[in-house]
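seq:
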Amino acid sequence: MAHLAFLVLAVTSPTWGSTAAVPPIPQFERWEANMVSYGLKYAAELAAHRDDADVTPLIETAVYYDAARTYHQIGTYTGDPQWRQPMLDAIHVYRDRFVIPNGYDVAGHVLFSDGMLLHLIATGDAISRETVLQMAAKDRWTRPDSPIPLDGAGGTRETAYALKALINARAIDGIQRPRIAVAVDGIIQHIDQWFVSKTAELRPFFIGLALEALIAADEAEPDPRILPAVRFACDGLWDRMWVAEAGAFRYTDNEKAGTDPTADLNLLIAPAYAWVYRRTGDARYLERGDLAFAGGVRAAYLDGVKQFHQNYRWSFAYVAWRSQPPLTVRSARRASAEKKAPVAVRPAAPVVDTAPWRDGIAAALREHGRWPVVIELPLLGDLAEVSVVAVTSSGVDAEHRGNVLPVRWHEITDADLARLGQLALPDEAPALDLAWRLAGAAKDKRTRDAIGYRLLKVDEQRFRALSAPSAAP
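struct:
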């Protein structure tokens, strides 16, 4: 189940844009603005055409690059419920009108499973659950007896989507599928073909899709080969395909296919640099990721729905990873703290009553079954990406890498309690009220802004009173 939590957390990190420990993300505000303005435009178009007689143009444009995933991510990021319907429209077109009628066996370049997994997580929908499982069992690229080899770089896009589909199915039923290892091995061989033997054509956005799948595989089930492989590919892409004056990667290295830089594909690639930076702390990947992200946002062509989804399918992960200090920095800080204080001191108990959180989290769990959040796990002594699966009078139960760990109320910091406050459903205004105050006290501006956005929607008068200068914590 670890990948299930990872997939959601890649789009729902509680701190966005920057923190005190990391510099601001360039072009971040423009990325946010484009997300909403273009997203609303294409959501309206999808609503108007979801039942067009010919579904093929919709599959090739309106829902290509997994529109359900994109719209779910926007809704989660903004906290705005209006994005739920576009997600459902995309599910209707892709799942109900395309995948199921085709017997769960679709071409590899349109094998999109993330959106349906997110739909399952958000709603518990049995049809999305079954569709993800059936695609893993029956699609020509994923089924156990598939004759299609996965070791050729020419099929890297399809291999990447197949790997994601297999991982997503395993996240649902816990069943290990041998073709996962075949796909991981295949993509690692592709990296060799691109950057060692140099026998395969370079298409940076295909490579970005492959790296996304490898990263998902590593987050679900750590593999010591993956970080070095992703890092090596990022280096090779930068050395051979980055065009500094254009702020973009070249489309290919093949003159016949086109070698012009294409900024609107940058955001399929940039998150890999953020992930390597987060895992290693190497500032080169921070700098290169920022250049790729900023170039993509600044020069992307968004007047096509396909291009919109290619820009927003994975860029939420860039923002989430880039907004957090590298894991190596956290480890160093923790080691330094342990030197100064050999005996661990638990955070003081919150000075406010935790009952509103218990009520709000319990309501969220009844609605959704589980909820992703980033909090400090005392057992690890560090921030961790978890799914909250239960709440009791003594604390919460957090699932991390397949293990359910108890986190007691007295172990939860003010900042973490504020993040947990976001689990409250929209009608749980008291929890949002207190969460907003605690986020301010903890100087966690991004969390406070996110909570304030939700509070504004459920109790505007209370929000105005809280945000008045005299009421600031």
